[in-house]
Specification:
Largest sheet of chain A: 5 strands, parallel
CATH superfamily of chain A: Response regulator
Number of strands of chain B: 14
Number of domains of chain B: 3
CATH class of chain A: Alpha Beta
Strand content of chain A: 15-25%
Strand order of the largest sheet of chain A: 2-1-3-4-5
Largest sheet of chain B: 7 strands, antiparallel
Distance between the termini of chain B: 59 Å
Strand content of chain B: 15-25%
Number of helices of chain B: 12
Number of helices of chain A: 6
Number of strands of chain A: 5
Shape of chain A: globular
Oligomer: heterodimer
Helix content of chain B: 40-55%
Structural class of chain A: alpha/beta
Order of helices and strands of chain A: HEHEHEHEHEH
Radius of gyration of chain B: 29 Å
Helix content of chain A: 40-55%
Radius of gyration of chain A: 14 Å
Chain lengths: 134, 408
């Protein structure tokens, strides 16, 4: 039991099941505990049950999009500290601008990766983000 | 949504007169039309009318704002999305399809803020205009002007559509690339050398396709103002390094060495960082594509008093002299490169980006100078460009001086 508790818990959110499987396959090579969600609503539900050590988040999704998830996470003190890595096909300046237009605030995320993610690079970034959190 | 019976006909007449569509009509017409009007109000987020539903009501907005939206779905698997193609503000109308066959709404309209207005019964209005041709003609003239202005807006709509198309095309590619990279890195088991080679080739081909989709979309929305809006201070050395990183795999594939000759020190310049990277990456990719295996590509940069200069030179076959004047045109490909993949958009995009920077991009063959074949692309970027922030400050300073000049 104690063994499981120690593994960092990563929640991956993307509406594309193939992306989920690809990212999962890469991250499974490390000692992480992984969970996935297909949309923003489900993501918030799962975070309500257990707060992840890292959130890997797509932006364009049905039900609630990634910008919505970031907004909710950052306005809820219990989740505000969770590092967020955005992983999307949307270019970075466009997403930042959209978030600023919608909220009047700068987007508070810890990393931004444009798809497709290079596996070795992804692992490095994930490791780094998990350290920030600890 | 709730409705209230018009308080009085004369009030409604005055309100109708203020709308763009009925402003030319006489009192008699307006009184008749007021008979089949009702007051409406909507809350933020409410749908006022739906695309392709029967158009039975014309809406005049008096306060608030509606967004006109069209549903876009590309392919069977993609999520349908709503693209905003225009807005309807106070005095304007929504639902002009009410007046044109086949009486189906051509867009949806959604409330952006609490909105109040008048709903005019479509069937009654059509009947009135048919039986009162003078009024009908006035309304139709205004309607024609309105539709023609919406038509001019079509460029914006196209840009929006393209950005969605591009996302829908890129998403499946990203999934494929992700799987291929995962396999190549051995996360799904060891590959034998032949499988590894095939996966490597697939990654390159898919990356080409992704770049091509990006190019087609970029070309459609590449306007100087859009590029200039992204101007910021950036280190051209860093941008160049990113571009080299972009082409590393393609260069390794043909065993081409990129020889970098930077200036002693890079000074920051104002420019659209992501776009400049696109230009350099494109120049390097071009050079690599047209170079023979095991050759060198030179990437140089230096400063002149007025400009920073970037140069990419290859040891390829050169560009036929008769083709040189055309290489920056859309979809142009030189006559001697049939075996090389490409759509011929890269250079025209590069030129558009450099022009937005008030710079220039030149191409020439260097065969005579270096004693072997080769092409050299040179980009000049002025060093005195301004960020939007700097321009705003200048404008404000000029405004502040204005009254002084007038009083002189």
């Amino acid at each position: 039991m104690a063994e499981i508790e120690k593994k960092p818990y990563i929640l991956i959110v993307d509406d594309d099941p193939d992306i989920l499987e690809g990212i999962r396959t890469i991250l499974e090579s490390r000692s992480y505990r992984l969970a996935t969600a297909r949309d923003g609503k489900k993501c918030m539900e799962m975070i309500g049950q257990e707060i992840p050590d890292l959130l890997i988040l797509d932006l364009l999704m049905p039900r609630m999009d990634g910008w919505g998830v970031i907004r909710e996470m950052r306005s809820e003190p219990r989740y505000a500290h969770v590092p967020i890595m955005v992983l999307t096909t949307v270019i970075e300046d466009a997403s930042r601008r959209r978030y600023e237009l919608e909220t009047g605030m700068a987007i508070d995320i810890q990393d931004y990766v444009q798809k497709p993610a290079n596996p070795a690079d992804l692992l490095l970034r994930v490791e780094k983000l998990l350290k920030i959190h600890v | 949504m709730f409705e209230v019976k018009s308080r009085s006909l004369s009030v409604t007449v005055e309100r109708l007169r203020r709308s763009e569509i009925f402003r030319e009509l006489c009192d008699e017409d307006l009184i008749a039309i007021a008979e089949f009007c009702r007051e409406v109000s909507y809350q933020e987020g409410e749908i006022v009318l739906s695309e392709s539903a029967p158009a039975d009501t014309l809406y005049i907005v008096e306060r608030g704002k509606l967004a006109l939206e069209k549903k876009i779905q590309i392919g069977r698997h993609s999520t349908p999305r709503n693209a905003t193609i225009g807005y309807v503000e106070a005095g304007k109308i929504a639902g002009f399809s009410t007046l044109s066959v086949p009486h189906e709404y051509s867009t949806s309209a959604m409330c952006l803020e609490p909105t109040r207005g008048i709903a005019v019964d479509g069937e009654a209005l059509r009947h009135y205009l048919e039986t009162h041709p003078a009024a009908g003609l006035k309304v139709m003239k205004i309607l024609a002007a309105l539709i023609s202005s919406r038509y001019r807006n079509a460029t914006n709509t196209l840009t929006y559509f393209l950005s969605i198309v591009s996302h829908e095309l890129r998403s499946p590619l990203a999934a494929i690339e992700n799987y291929l990279q995962t396999m190549l890195a051995g996360f799904a088991g060891e590959l034998n050398p032949k499988q590894k080679r095939m996966v490597e080739r697939s990654i390159l081909r898919v990356a080409d396709l992704r770049a091509l989709i990006g190019d087609v979309v970029d070309l459609a929305r590449m306007r100087p103002e859009q590029i200039q809006a992204d101007f910021e201070w950036c280190n051209p050395g860093e941008v160049g390094t990113e571009s080299i990183e972009d082409v590393r795999l393609a260069a390794a594939e043909k065993n081409i060495r990129i020889m970098v000759e930077p200036p002693e020190k890079f000074e920051p310049i104002v420019g659209a960082r992501r776009r400049l990277r696109q230009v350099f990456t494109n120049m390097l990719n071009n050079a690599i594509k047209y170079s023979p295996p095991d050759s060198k590509v030179f990437f140089r940069a230096w400063y002149e008093p007025e400009a920073v200069v970037f140069e990419v030179e290859d040891e390829g076959p050169g560009i036929p002299e008769e083709d040189l004047p055309h290489i920056f045109k859309n979809f142009f490909r030189a006559s001697n490169v049939e075996q090389v993949q490409g759509a011929g958009l890269g250079l025209s995009i590069a030129e558009k980006i450099i022009e937005a920077h008030q710079g220039k991009i030149l191409a020439r063959n260097v065969t005579a100078e270096i004693g072997k074949t080769g092409t050299r692309f040179t980009v000049y970027i002025p060093r005195d460009l301004k960020t939007p922030e700097m321009r705003r400050h200048e404008w404000m300073a000029a405004e502040a001086e204005q009254p002084l000049e007038e009083s002189r």
